[in-house]
Design brief:
The protein is an all-alpha fold. It has three domains: 78 residues, no CATH class; 50 residues, no CATH class; 47 residues. It is 62% helix and 2% strand. It is built from eleven helices and two strands, in the order αααααααααααββ. The protein has a two-stranded antiparallel sheet with strand order 1-2. Strand 1 and strand 2 form a beta hairpin. The two termini are 61 Å apart. InterPro entries: RTRAF.
Length: 224
């Protein structure tokens, strides 16, 4: 916004840069004048700004840098021992980023919580509570995310099967019983496939735990 830009320049000069004397700032303060761009261009030359009037982003950045430098020069004793706000929170930020770093695995509340979760999710118990916690995390990620739940709730549409194309392998002597046997065999194959899928998922979950370089599954300990 042109008006905001001009007000910003006037504010910088009045409050921070103060290159002109107060009585010499009239042309720059007259932000509604058609001659303001010329006054601004002259101002840029007077403060030795290296950018052109068309390069507004660069000009604003340079003028802000000049204002900060002058502000610091006027209040060096005030600012020299200041600590950036971000640096004050560095330690807390690091701790919050890794909330499990300072976790007390021997805390009874921690053990009770992990055990309660393991029982709720029907996860095999382990002597090391951290191992159980990692197993809980894997289960939650794989089964309890919104996407996993939505996928599980999707109804499965069956595909039509031509029984006559599937060879039973024996003959009961009754066409109806033969057809029932074919259906049972197909259902059994489907159950075996589902079982194989669960076995594969269990293998992946176990591999995810023992592949952690901090975990020595032979010792049943973590972080050693």
């Amino acid at each position: 916004d042109e008006t905001e830009f001009r007000n910003f320049i006037v504010w910088l000069e009045d409050q921070k840069i103060r290159h002109y004397k107060i009585e010499d700032r009239g042309n720059l303060r007259n932000i509604h004048s058609d001659d303001w761009p010329k006054s601004f261009e002259k101002y840029m030359k007077d403060v030795n700004c290296p950018f052109k009037i068309q390069e507004r982003q660069e000009t604003v950045d340079w003028l802000l840098g000049l204002a900060v430098r002058l502000e610091y020069g006027d209040n060096a004793d005030k600012y020299k021992d200041s600590t950036p706000d971000g640096a004050k929170n560095t330690d807390n930020t690091a701790k919050n980023a890794e909330p499990l770093i300072n976790l007390d695995v021997n805390n009874p509340d921690f053990k009770a919580g992990v055990m309660a979760l393991a029982n709720l999710l029907q996860i095999q118990r382990h002597d090391d509570y951290l191992v159980m916690l990692k197993a809980i995390r894997i289960l939650v990620q794989e089964r309890l995310t919104q996407e996993a739940i939505a996928k599980a709730n999707q109804s499965k549409e069956g595909l039509p099967v031509a029984l006559e194309k599937h060879i039973l392998g024996f003959d009961t002597g009754d066409a109806v019983i033969n057809e029932a046997a074919q259906i049972l065999r197909l259902l059994h194959i489907e159950e075996l496939r589902e079982l194989q899928t669960k076995i594969n998922e269990a293998i992946v979950a176990v591999q995810a735990i023992i592949a952690d370089p901090k975990t020595d599954h032979r010792l049943g300990k973590v972080g050693r």
